[in-house]
Each structure stands twice: as structure tokens, then as C-alpha cells.
Specification:
Distance between the termini of chain B: 69 Å
Number of domains of chain A: 2
Structural class of chain B: alpha+beta
Number of domains of chain B: 1
CATH superfamily of chain B: Lipoprotein localisation LolA/LolB/LppX
CATH class of chain B: Mainly Beta
Oligomer: heterodimer
Strand content of chain B: over 45%
Strand content of chain A: 15-25%
Order of helices and strands of chain B: HEHEEEEEEEEHHEEEEEEEH
Distance between the termini of chain A: 31 Å
Largest interface: A-B, 21 and 22 residues
Shape of chain A: elongated
Shape of chain B: globular
Structural class of chain A: alpha+beta
Strand order of the largest sheet of chain A: 2-3-8-5-7-6
CATH topology of chain B: outer membrane lipoprotein receptor (LolB), chain A
Number of strands of chain A: 12
Number of helices of chain B: 5
Largest sheet of chain B: 14 strands, antiparallel
Strand order of the largest sheet of chain B: 1-10-11-12-13-14-15-16-2-3-4-5-6-7
Helix content of chain B: 10-25%
Largest sheet of chain A: 6 strands, mixed, barrel
Radius of gyration of chain B: 20 Å
CATH architecture of chain B: Clam
């Protein structure tokens, strides 16, 4: 404790150098906080966009479908899930479940006059999707009505790029062709109620959304592809997944429970990419702070060679001298990180208040507002990180000071 | 050791021989049964995808002349659905769609059977002979004609067409892609005899989809005049009359 106080007093002896060291640590702390905030913003934003874009937190699907199509988001095979109303009742009675929406996915061909396009059709229940906090990003017109449409009044939402390709607008009637569960062709007229975007250009060129009842009418079935489960909190995903697997164990036909991350391998790829960038930037900050502070600590030691020699001459042990220099470094790290945290919070708040629009990432259709996300743990972590960096930076100055010979040190000019 | 391959080559040469172009053209004309089909007729076919389990559907075909054909789906859930071909363009009509939708002429009705496979390809009219070889198969003479499409109307660019000269009936036809790869093979297995013989049963093997086999069986055929209104894209009155008559007849 005594050495810690001495080290703190030592910092006040050359205030300009101490201030320089503190500035380096403050800059490093702010840089780390901003990078962490951006990475967290990207992860959380992408995660919630994927989940609430239609995938949901969990999917309950016939295990045979998993074998055929894998654990991916698109399941364009014929709807094979029977008895799903009973399964849904069981799921919706569980804690943390907001709702379980029935989904039918299939591929088909949509036509407007002479123009046609192959599409991926996704049919659901708008009312339940709203309960699950699913987002349909409208680019024009209106969403699908909640009630199942009567025969001849079927409606559709078109991907914005698909609508451009077909030359279709809100109010147009298009014809969707699909293969029924009996293997024959069928067609259904659908009125365009709105244009949507999924945020991914490639998907917008081929997606159509409609009411579950319309899809079942076209495909001539009451089966569904899967049940999409929405939870009140993403962190509950594993807990509910485990509970569902336990509940459906041994059920025939066998059901599989797939989490959102498994269905969206894209998220894992983005996560890996961003973590790589984060570690690279972190390493740069680490090296810069380490070298810069090591230099000022070294200067501090070199200026105090005679003083250190005197301390050793009057009986101060080399370990005690080393402790003083190490404590000086740690003080710089802790104080600099605390100031950096404070300034970082203000900077994050300022950046978020500016509402900066980020350009769309590759393949996406729209930009997003930058909103850096920080967590309380980040501040403690930056303090600890800076203390460690400064501890490492002090290694060389400490080494030099403990190797000083008293006679040489006292002669040092 | 050199003698054996040489002998095999000589035997192979002896087993196959080129035939005169006039003879080949005559054989193609005589074996082109689709060209001798009635001008107007109504027929019922059963199309069965020979999988496990077999999956079949019945269709009724109404044909008037070369350019107009109507396929009516007879399954209990298929009421009101038609495929209509006019001048080479195929339209799909369904109760859920107010307007007809243009679809590919190569659309598969069931398994790998397309409309052309059911109505018959006009080998003599739409193809030209590029080569003809006389050979033997199962101890009987066989002529293999290499056909090339005359124009874009033909459903396949090239066909290897095997005909029994003794009966003047086709044994099989191999449909080839522009790359030369075999797309599918049709085997003509049974015939309905008469003044105008027609294929009663044929089997299609899809070489692009793991050898998927589809059987097409002619259940009945009736030569008759067909009202032109049946092929009207907009006015469905005549087609509704067919549906009503079917309901009354319980079919």
C-alpha cells in the first residue's frame, strides 16, 4: 500500500509526462470502447434482424425435412407437418413463448401478363407474427390482413426487386403457380397489397409473402412446413429449445427443434469476420499503447537513475524499487482507463445522438443507423485491460531499474 | 493378339450397315404413328410415375387438328384445371386464376411425362434424317435413325429413333440434348391395333433424374369432332359443359 502511494506521488512529479501517458491510455480506452460498441451493435442488430425478419427464435419441423433440406432457413419442399395445431397449443403454453406461427414455404412461378419469375413463397399468420414481434419492412402499400382471405380475395406482398422485374404495383393481380401435394400444377390469383424488403438484395428478387390460408389453398393441403416460435427474450433460446426437445422426444412423426443461429449460418460468418476485425484493431491498440507508455516509463526511470541508486544504497530492496515503478504504470493504466471510460460514454452518447446512417453492407438493400452499444462490463474490462497493458509496458523499465549497480547509478549524470 | 480386335471390328461392321436415304425416309414416314392419328379425338390416359409407391393420375385429352389440344385433369382435387395448347403455346387454366397462365411446353404432367410425350411427337414432320443404320436387336432387324430438328417447333434437338422394319413400328426413341447427352428414352411397349394403330402403353425413362420411369397408358380413344369453343382461352363455356356432363355421368 505504501509503495502504491509513493508511486502515485511520483506521477505528480513530472506532470507533463504523466499527462502524455494518460492521454495515450485514454485514447486507447476510447478506441477499445468504440470498437466494442460497434461490434456489439453489429451483432445485436443482425441477430434481432434475422430473428424478427421471419426466422424466429426456434423452429419446430418434421425431422424428415431436416434430413432433406438441412438446418437452413429455406425449406421449399412440400409441407409435411401434420397435427400441428396440437403441437402449437403445447408450445404456446410454455413459459417465455410469445407465439408459435404456422409457416408454409414453397417454390413457384409468379406471372404478370407475359412476365414470369421463379419465386420462394413464404406464407404465415400475420396476427401471430405480430405477437412474435416479426417485422415486415414495407416499401409501399399495406401489410397482409390478419384474417384468412376468402376464396378469390387472396393477397400477396412482393419483394421490391421482384415487383420491379415483373412491372407490378400495389393493386395488380398476379397469378402464382405451384405444385400441389398431389404433384399436379395449380394456380391462384393474388392481389398485390404491398411491396417489401428483407434487407437482402438477392432475397428481394424472389420472395413473396402471403397468408397461410392462401398457400394451403394453392397447394391443396392443410399441412404446414414448420412452426416458428417467438420468445420474449433471445437469451432464453437455449432454455426453451431444451424444454421443447424434451417434450417432443419419442413423438411420432419425429419433430426436430432448430435454433435461429443454426438456420442462419450467415450470422456465424459475419460474427467470425467481425471478431477477426475486432481482434486486429484490439491488437493494434494494444501494441500502440504498450510501446508509447513503455517509452514514457523508460524516460521516467532513466531520469531517476541516481535517485534509484540512492534508494538502493540506503537499503531499499530491488523488489521494492520494482514495485514502485510497476505501481506507477498500473496507476497510469487505471486512471487513464477511468478517464477514457468517462469520455467514451460521452462520445458514444454523442455519436448515437447524431443518428449517423451507415452505408448498406454488401448484398443488403438499405443502410442502418449507427447505434453503438455498450455494456457495464465493458468499462471494468477496459480498466483491467489497460492495467495489464501498462503492466507489460513496465517490464523493460522495471528490468533496467533492478539491474542497476549502486555505484554506477550514483555516478550517473 | 492383334487378330482378335480386328475380328471384332469386322463382326461389328457386318452387324451394322448404312441404309439408303430413300428407304430410311420411307420407314420414318410409315412409323410416324402420330401423323396417322385421327384429326379430332378425345382420349383418356393414365400417367403413372413408377416409384415406390407408384403415383398415377388420369387425364382426358381433346384434340382438334395439329394445333389445338386440351388436357383435362380428372383427379378429384383437379376439377376445373386444364392445359391448353394452341399453336405450340401451352397455357394453364385453373379455377383459382381468372386468366390463363403461359407455361413451358416441356411441363411435366406427372413423373417425366410431358404433353408431347402423351400426344406424340411428329418425327416425320418435325425432323430430318441425318443418318440411318441397319442393325439387329434380340435377333430381329432394327433400323436406327439419327434425327435432327427442322426448326424450333420440335421439342428435342436430336432424336435417336429405333424402328422395326418388319412391323414399321417404333421400338424406342432416345431424346438427346444439344450437348449430346441423352435426356430421356421412350419405349413403345403395346399397340392398339386398327386402321390407325396407336400406342396403348409406353414407358419413359428420365436419364437426367436418376432413371425415373413413367408409364403412359391409353385407356380409351374416341374419334369425334371437337367444338372449337373448347380451345377458347377466354370463354370457358364449352369446358364447363364438359364438367357438367362429367358430373352427370359420374366420372
Amino acid at each position: 500500500m505504501k509503495f502504491a502511494v509513493i508511486a502515485l506521488r511520483n506521477l505528480a512529479r513530472n506532470r507533463r509526462r504523466t499527462l502524455l501517458s494518460l492521454l495515450i491510455v485514454v485514447a486507447g480506452t476510447i478506441g477499445t470502447l468504440l470498437t466494442t460498441g460497434f461490434v456489439r451493435f453489429s451483432f445485436e442488430g443482425l441477430r434481432e434482424a434475422i430473428i424478427h425478419g421471419g426466422i424466429g427464435h426456434l423452429e419446430v419441423v418434421p425431422r424428415s425435412d431436416i434430413r432433406e433440406s438441412g438446418s437452413i432457413a429455406e425449406r421449399p419442399g412440400l409441407p409435411a407437418m401434420t397435427g400441428w395445431q396440437e403441437v402449437r397449443s403445447e408450445i404456446e403454453a410454455m413459459p417465455h413463448v410469445l407465439a408459435a406461427g404456422a409457416v408454409v414455404q414453397f417454390t413457384g412461378m409468379i406471372s404478370k401478363g407475359e412476365r414470369s419469375a421463379a419465386v420462394l413463397a413464404v406464407a404465415g399468420e400475420p396476427e401471430r407474427e405480430r405477437r412474435m414481434r416479426m417485422e415486415v419492412k414495407l416499401r409501399g402499400g399495406a401489410g397482409l390482413p390478419d384474417a384468412p382471405p376468402a376464396e378469390g380475395e387472396d393477397a400477396v406482398l412482393l419483394g421490391a426487386a421482384l415487383a420491379r422485374h415483373l412491372g407490378a404495383e400495389t393493386g395488380d393481380v398476379l397469378t402464382l403457380l405451384g405444385i400441389t401435394t398431389d404433384g399436379t400444377l395449380n394456380a391462384l390469383d393474388l392481389r398485390v397489397t404491398g411491396l417489401i424488403t428483407t434487407g437482402v438484395q438477392d432475397v428481394d428478387t424472389r420472395i413473396v409473402r402471403m397468408h397461410l390460408a392462401s398457400a394451403q389453398r394453392l397447394l391443396g393441403t392443410q399441412n404446414i412446413t414448420s412452426l416458428v416460435v417467438g420468445l420474449d427474450d433471445t437469451s432464453r433460446t437455449l432454455e426453451v429449445e431444451t424444454a421443447l426437445e424434451r417434450r417432443f422426444r419419442g413423438r411420432q412423426p419425429s419433430l426436430a427443434v432448430v435454433d435461429w443461429k443454426t438456420r442462419a449460418p450467415f450470422y456465424g460468418q459475419v460474427e467470425s469476420l467481425y471478431l477477426g476485425i475486432f481482434w486486429f484493431l484490439g491488437s493494434v491498440i494494444f501494441v500502440l499503447v504498450c510501446l508509447a507508455t513503455s517509452n514514457t516509463l523508460m524516460m521516467s526511470v532513466m531520469e531517476r537513475v541516481r535517485e534509484i541508486g540512492t534508494l538502493l544504497a540506503i537499503g531499499t530492496s530491488r523488489a521494492q524499487v520494482a514495485a514502485i515503478i510497476l505501481f506507477e504504470a498500473l496507476w497510469l493504466g487505471v486512471l487513464g482507463a477511468l478517464v477514457g471510460d468517462l469520455l467514451g460514454v460521452l462520445l458514444v452518447a454523442g455519436i448515437n445522438a447524431l443518428g449517423i446512417e451507415m452505408p448498406p453492407p454488401p448484398g443488403a438493400t438499405g443502410g442502418m443507423e449507427l447505434h453503438l452499444a455498450t455494456a457495464p462490463g465493458d468499462f471494468a474490462a477496459t480498466v483491467a485491460l489497460m492495467a495489464v497493458i501498462l503492466g507489460i509496458a513496465a517490464a523493460v523499465p522495471v528490468g533496467i531499474s533492478v539491474r542497476l549497480r549502486i555505484a554506477d547509478a550514483l555516478r550517473h549524470v | 493378339m492383334v487378330v482378335l480386335p480386328a475380328l471384332a471390328l469386322m463382326l461389328a461392321h457386318a452387324a451394322t450397315a448404312m441404309i439408303a436415304p430413300a428407304d430410311a425416309a420411307d420407314l420414318l414416314k410409315k412409323s410416324d404413328v402420330a401423323s396417322r392419328a385421327p384429326v379430332s379425338f378425345r382420349a383418356r390416359f393414365r400417367i403413372t410415375a413408377l416409384g415406390e409407391p407408384p403415383d398415377s393420375m388420369d387425364v382426358e385429352v381433346w384434340r382438334s387438328g395439329e394445333s389445338k389440344s386440351l388436357v383435362r385433369f380428372l383427379g378429384p382435387k383437379e376439377k376445373g384445371k386444364y392445359l391448353l395448347r394452341r399453336d405450340g403455346v401451352v397455357w394453364f387454366l385453373a379455377p383459382g386464376a381468372r386468366k390463363p397462365v403461359k407455361i413451358s411446353p416441356a411441363h411435366r404432367l406427372r413423373g417425366s411425362a410431358s404433353l408431347d410425350d402423351i400426344l406424340g411427337i411428329r418425327y416425320g414432320r418435325d425432323y430430318v434424317i441425318e443418318g440411318a443404320t441397319a442393325t439387329e436387336e434380340a435377333g430381329e432387324p432394327l433400323v436406327v435413325l439419327d434425327l435432327a430438328a427442322k426448326g424450333p417447333r420440335a421439342p428435342y434437338p436430336r432424336i435417336r429413333y429405333s424402328v422395326r422394319p418388319a412391323t414399321e413400328r417404333p421400338l424406342r426413341a432416345e431424346y438427346l440434348l444439344p450437348s449430346g447427352r441423352t435426356s430421356s428414352v421412350v419405349e413403345f411397349l403395346e399397340w392398339k391395333e386398327g386402321s390407325r394403330p396407336v400406342v396403348r402403353r409406353l414407358v419413359l425413362t428420365d436419364r437426367l433424374r436418376s432413371g425415373l420411369r413413367t408409364e403412359v397408358t391409353l385407356l380409351e380413344m374416341e374419334e369425334r369432332s371437337i367444338p372449337d369453343g373448347l380451345f377458347d382461352l377466354v370463354d370457358s363455356t364449352e369446358r364447363k359443359k364438359i364438367e357438367e356432363r362429367s358430373l352427370e355421368a359420374g366420372s
